[in-house]
Amino acid sequence: MATAGALRLGPSSSSSSSSFLHGHRRLVPARPKPHVPASPRGWRGARAAAHLHDLFVGVGVGLPCTVMECGDIIYRSTLPRPTGLTLTAPGAALALAAVSYLWATPGVAPGFFDMFVLAFVERVFRPSFRKDEIVLGKKIGEGAFGVVYKVSLAKPKPSVKEGDLVLKKATEYGAVEIWMNERVRRACANSCADFLYGFLERKSKGKVGDEYWLIWRFEGEDTLADLMQSKEFPYNVEAKILGGNQDLPKGLGRENKIIQTIIRQLLFALDGLHSTGIVHRDIKPQNVIFSEEARTFKIIDLGAAADLRVGINYIPKEFLLDPRYAAPEQYIMSTQTPSAPSAPVATALSPVLWQLNLPDRFDIYSLGLIFLQMAFPSLRTDSSLIQFNRQLKRCNYDLNSWRNLVEPRAGPDLRRGFELLDLDGGIGWELLTSMVRYKARQRISARAALAHPYFNREGLLGLSIMQNLRLQQYRATQKDYSEAANWVINLMAKSGTASEGGFTEAQLQELRDIKPKRGSAQRNVLASVLRLQRKIVKTLNESMDELNQQRKSLWWSRWIPREE
Ligand SMILES: Nc1ncnc2c1ncn2[C@@H]1O[C@H](COP(=O)(O)OP(=O)(O)OP(=O)(O)O)[C@@H](O)[C@H]1O
């Protein structure tokens, strides 16, 4: 084969700018002569570069036109087009898959933009606060990890809207709470109380323990817990969220409408958090505040929240849950998932881990219990809620079994609750039962719940054919596929004997144990698939554990400002 350089013809060669090759009139792409330096070392380098250049650019010159990008000088349309990006079907599919992965919940790509662009831009423009600018007012709350005060500013700041503020002096989980609040403020500000600033206040020498100061706008006096304790509930909320006079007479229909509105507002707030990769983990009426200005309910207290996008605060073995509202799984991630991986690993794997664990369904369960308390006044006290939880556990977390258990001997109060949920063909009960389920995978997501016909004015009866179809589709997707897999396995078991290629119970057990076995091809394929699935999960977990060996630091706390 001719060397690439030997047959090179072009404007820089001694021949004409067009040349004849293989007896045809062909245009040959020109190649500029490489610059030759004076020193031998430089000369050798230049030669190497020229060789490399020839290898990639010159190869093909002098070869048949099937290889080269040749064109006919007369038929100009056959001349090579300017080289640009060529879109091929597999390329487009690959790009689409990559983009879908990067944008899938909890959002790797938006996460990078948020962390490395938005966070810095925001820091330049937002107002900051110092300890001596704040005047402490009355204490409004005290938890295990902090004290909350109503405060005001010593001197008004032009960049800060007038009004009362709230200050939390937090110890242990203050850094996490600042991180979560800042993320929320950038991603879904309306979901949570309006966060203004957070900083680390270093204690002077001699005093122990640093404190994190967190400042919010004062949203209002009432939490949902305060409002639900009133005998007037839900009417005491009606004027706040639905405004002035309501034309409906007092009764179940009107109460249902108010409860619907509260649940919808909370689902919106949760959907905002979940779509940015944050799971609250402590949803309860005490952590829901009514914002007088926005006339809507907002979520507070993100101290126990986990950021699944970068793996902050999801430590499967550690939990700070309120047992009254916690979902049965208690851990938002499978206990097989190793403790929080390093940030880049967590970020890269976050869509996979999210889909494997569906951690957001933890909050959905808690919200389901709040829904239940709204419908049944007798479940609003701590003791009755604890008792209900025990009953539900005995019923294997199946609300329908619980209903069968209590309804026959229910008092007027419980019966009224069931009546309220049974309005519009029982659509409220259906939504409730899809929120309170044992398996996280079977629970509805916040977004799907918002599209549920419970929030449709006319309920089930008012659904169009298309909406009905969507509902059927939704119901189908709520089914647990592990049950479906078991069903298929059982069907296969019953479909034959070992000699006919079917499975006996004993063989099935072997399959479930996924031990390699010699046998029919059908059985081996299934066993291999199950083995492969198990191996993937195991490898994923092991590699994350390995990456975790280097001690995790609170790398993200560098983002938190300090008061010097
Ligand atoms: N932005 C706000 N506007 C008005 N009140 C607020 C706001 N944030 C918090 N509060 C009030 O402060 C109380 C305590 O807040 P928060 O739950 O965040 O603190 P905490 O120390 O975590 O308490 P706990 O451990 O009991 O949950 C709330 O119940 C609420 O009454």
UniProtKB/TrEMBL annotation:
Catalytic activity: L-threonyl-[protein] + ATP = O-phospho-L-threonyl-[protein] + ADP + H(+); L-seryl-[protein] + ATP = O-phospho-L-seryl-[protein] + ADP + H(+)
Cellular component, GO annotation: chloroplast thylakoid
EC number(s) recorded for this UniProt protein: 2.7.11.1
Segments forming domain Protein kinase: 134-455
UniProt-listed Pfam families: Pkinase
Amino-acid positions noted as binding ATP in the UniProt annotation, renumbered to this chain: K168
Sequence segments annotated as region (Disordered): 1-20
An example Gene Ontology biological process: regulation of photosynthesis, light reaction
Domain of life according to the entry: Eukaryota
Broad EC category: transferase
Classification via InterPro entries: Kinase-like_dom_sf (IPR011009), Prot_kinase_dom (IPR000719), Protein_kinase_ATP_BS (IPR017441), Ser/Thr_kinase_AS (IPR008271)
UniProt keyword list: ATP-binding, Chloroplast, Kinase, Nucleotide-binding, Plastid, Serine/threonine-protein kinase, Thylakoid, Transferase, Transit peptide
GO molecular function: ATP binding; protein serine/threonine kinase activity
Chaperone in keyword set: no
Subcellular location(s) per record: Plastid, Chloroplast thylakoid
The protein's name in its UniProt record: non-specific serine/threonine protein kinase
Organism of derivation: Canna indica (Indian-shot)
